[in-house]
Write a structure and sequence with these properties.
By secondary structure, the protein is of the alpha+beta class. The protein contains two helices and seven strands; from the N terminus they run αβββββββα. The protein starts with 25 loop residues before the first helix and ends in a 9-residue tail after the last helix. It binds nickel (II) ion.
């Protein structure tokens, strides 16, 4: 595993659309592991592959890490697709490892249903709410070249 360099504000890769992952091979698994390590190292709760320079539809997150005092609950989502969104919205202050020191209130759907493939190649569906739903919306936006400042 390795810490990868995080692409920052002004890097044009952050506004590009990422491509689907076709095959989950060792390179993809290594990338996902590196993304998690990079996220934890930088005290982030989510990271998209484009933020480490790879235009692939991979998201990692662990929204419980901080409140659970360092107990890790990592999630890796390959080719995530948000299938449904609640009408109800919530507003949470967001930050982003690519935009250090910038924090903004962003309105997001309170609940989302998301389909994704896990590292074992299994297609899964989860229903997320509150902070987890916010993280998923923030990170899947990255896969379409959208950053949280675009949502303000
Ligand atoms: Ni971000």
């Amino acid at each position: 595993m390795a810490i990868r360099q995080i692409r920052k504000k002004g890097d044009e890769i952050l506004s590009k659309k990422s491509r689907d992952v076709e095959v989950i091979d060792d390179k993809i698994k290594e990338l996902a592991e590196d993304m998690l390590e990079t996220m934890y190292k930088n005290d982030g709760i989510g990271l998209a592959a484009c933020q480490v320079g790879m235009l692939k539809r991979i998201v990692v997150y662990d929204y419980l890490y901080v409140e659970e005092n360092g107990k890790k609950s990592p999630v890796v989502m390959i080719n995530p697709v948000i299938k449904s969104r609640s009408k109800s919205m919530i507003e949470v202050e967001e930050g982003c490892l690519s935009f250090p020191d910038e924090y903004r209130d962003v309105k997001r759907h309170e609940k989302v249903t998301v389909e994704y493939t896990d590292l074992e190649g299994k297609r899964k569906t989860i229903h997320a709410k509150d902070l987890e739903a916010v993280v998923i919306q923030h990170e899947t936006d990255h896969l379409d070249g959208i950053v949280f400042l675009d949502r303000v």
